[in-house]
Amino acid sequence: MEGKKRCKIYKIIMLVVIVAFITFLCTSIGMYQYFGKTGNATIFATKAEDTNIDETLNRYKKIIDKYYLGEINEEKLKEGAIKGYIEGLDDPYTEYISKEDMKDYLEDTMGNFVGIGIYMVKNEDANKVQVLAPIKNSPAEKAGILPGDLIVAVDDVTYTGDDMSVAANKIKGEEGSTVKLEILREGETKSFELKRESIKVNPVEGKVLSNQIGYIEFSSFDDETAKDFKDKYLELEKQGIKSLIIDLRNNGGGIVDEALEIADYITEKDAILLYEVDKENKEEIRKAKNDPIIQMPIIILTNENTASSSEILAGALKDLGKAKICGEKTYGKGVIQQVLTLPDGSGLKITSEKYLTPNKTEINKIGIEPDEVVKLPDTVKNILNVEEKDDTQLQKAIEMLK
Fold first, then answer.
1. Is 319 annotated in the active site?
2. What is the pTM (predicted TM-score) of this model?
């Protein structure tokens, strides 16, 4: 009896095992059929040991050619591959510039373009395009766009910080045409419709303040900014100024050589103005070439939007004891890009060097601390339109020069 019982239990166990095996077999066949159909491309496309980008892209090209249902635009595929490859560097300052966009890009660098007049940066935390500052008297400034505004959409098309070049090109256009911007400001979304104009990017402006203090302000370093600065200084000198305020607040930078030329006007001949350090740690030392033409006390005004070439100028004059800095800590962009034009007419703006001040101080992602930290009152909502009496940073600079 006991033997029959054991036999019965054995048969039940075997039946369970057989059923489980058949279930496994059926599942395996099903999974094989599923992954056999969808997984062949994966096996075909890449191998763990593949490190050559050409081979990898060629594998994907074969898959697309074999399976893709729609039309294939080889030029768009190539451009997309280049953009993706460069974005993989995860550097907000390195970017691919298409052949169609290169002309506009170079015109912008020289200081003239048709648009609404804003400087933009990538806000990495929010992955949005951020307004660094509107250009004085531009359509953007007149419409009320402010530093720190985040551009969410252009003509109802949404853009991220990774799309900054594309968004910039959409904002530009024919003179007299309009563009619609959707702006995020302190959690509130605002819409603006602006008419594009021909913009002179960088007017150097100046005036004489009380106590024979000269004041010069400009918003970027573009072609001939140094010459315009010199002309404005000589104009103020004729009016009897005894000291000078250089306002670099909301100055997003630009051409490094223009910043160094302005530093050259103020520093002794052969003084070290800048160290440029490449990926091999090779240093290029940039020095003043001429005797100074400006020999008077100088205060530089800075804020969180003082960036790049502005930091080069401020850092050089501070380290060499030629100026004191008043305001807030600067942005912290201590790397230099160069623009390379490729044989097909496209371009690559690439981060190729970092810079150090004359004291070999790092700036990138750090910024420059002012000698006198002064914040604007909370009641000031727009630095571009602040009245002189409410400008605590300017008032402090005047006090320092007295």
1. yes
2. 0.69
